[in-house]
Amino acid sequence: MSHWAEIDENNLVVRVTVGDNNDPNGDEGYQWLIENLGGTWVKTSYNNTIRKNFAGIGYEYNESLDAFIPPKPESNHSFILDLDTCRWKAPIEKPKGNYYWDEDNIKWVEVDLESINTNNI
Predict the structure, then answer these.
(1) Rounded distance between C-alpha atoms, residue 3 and residue 81, angstroms
(2) Can you tell me the mean pLDDT for 77-95?
(3) Domain, as residue range, for 107
(4) Cα 23 → chain centroid
(5) Residues with Cβ within 8 Å of residue 20, at least 6 apart in sequence
(6) For the chain, what is the domain count?
(7) 39: left (phi over 0), alpha (psi -120 to 50) or beta
(8) 15-24, 46-55, 64-73, 84-93: lowest mean pLDDT where?
(9) pTM of the complete model
(10) Residue 116 burial (C-beta neighbours within 10 Å; 0-12, 13-18, 19+)
(11) Quick check: helix, strand or coil at residue 32?
């Protein structure tokens, strides 16, 4: 089973669908998509063997990186794009242990697990 992402004129993914690996054209359903749905289609992969990430609605297809890039997290304005994974990451490497990202202060903050009241969970 193949997967295809339709991209708009801004290279944003507008839908993702499944193609047929047994398509008689031998193109995993690409020609059928073009003839029946129109648009621009780019192959994507669940196991990320191509184009870095599985496409999702709202992802950007970056042609120069040949990769699908997820939307930047709205609450994490300081995050930067990791060009190796094409995923957003904090500008400072996360330390080992239990930490959360504090966007206001641009730093990782350790979680004090002993102070969490598990009775309220």
Answers:
(1) 24
(2) 96
(3) 2-120
(4) 27
(5) 1, 2, 28, 29, 32
(6) 1
(7) left
(8) 15-24
(9) 0.84
(10) exposed
(11) helix
> CA 7 to CA 39: how far, in whole Å?
7
Q: How far apart are CA 79 and CA 61, in angstroms?
A: 19
Tokens of residue 110, six digits: 């350790």
Of the candidates 13, 15, 17, 88, which has an alpha carbon nearest to the alpha carbon of residue 58?
Answer: 13
Q: Which tokens hold the place of 2?
A: 């193949």
Is residue 119 over pLDDT 70? no
Residue length, the chain? 121
- DSSP summary character for residue 87: E
Token code pair at residue 13:
């993914």
